[in-house]
Amino acid sequence: MRILNLVFHPNLNDSHVNKTWKSQLEESGKITTSRDMYAEYPDFQIDVEKEQKLLLRHDRIIFQFPIYWWSMPPLLKQWLDDVLQYQFAYGSKGDKLKDKDMQIICSAGGQAKNYNGFHMFATVPEVLKPFQLTANLAQMNYAQPLYMFNADACPDDEIRLFGNKWVESIDDPRRGDGLKYVNQRIHEELIAVYPQLGMA
Ligand SMILES: Cc1cc2nc3c(=O)[nH]c(=O)nc-3n(C[C@H](O)[C@H](O)[C@H](O)COP(=O)(O)O)c2cc1C
Fold first, then answer.
1. CA angle (113, 127, 65) in 5-degree steps
2. 186 CA to middle of ligand 1, Å?
3. Which residue from 31, 106, 151, 177 has the fewest beta carbons nearer than 10 Å?
4. Of residues 56, 24, 53, 18, the one with CA closest to residue 38
5. pLDDT digits 0-9 by tens, 36-59
6. Is residue 104 part of a domain?
7. Does the CB atom of residue 176 touch ligand 1 within 6 A?
């Protein structure tokens, strides 16, 4: 399996968590191509053709980043807007990413209790929902996201323990189709109840 790790951190040199994980993934020998995207595009002028060619040459695409304002760093949003073009990622002929895996690896500064999903809180998978919807549109398999809380206060050895877990699962062929299976099943169950709801 050819794995592409795209790391989006506005200042990777000052990063504690994502710099460590990027190195651990590279040292594992499991990553085919690993890139520091802010170093590559400091002016946000993304080379779309180069990015699309790289996507075509890999089976699993990792987006690795810190959560900023319950969302992604701005260069990642720019990259999605520019690279996932009509008739490349979606549209009648836009099936170039079909059956590739999308894997999110992210760090959250907030504590787990701030991501409990109740009342005014959201879970990390809820925060990452736009990625799941994007994967669905591009006919990609959305793997269960990998993430850690309390990122700014986390001791080095704990960061590395999480990194070891990511290294273990990163080339697991089942990770790529976990949510696709769940989505398909839920989709079929929903359709099955439409007549009872008077929607068929
Ligand atoms: C501009 C900015 C916005 C942030 N927004 C959030 C946020 O919405 N939720 C959260 O849990 N952490 C937030 N954080 C904390 C980062 O997620 C945390 O610093 C990062 O994951 C640590 O990873 P690093 O050591 O690789 O930088 C924010 C940090 C910055 C600088």
1. 95
2. 33
3. 177
4. 18
5. 999 999 999 999 999 999 999 999
6. yes
7. no
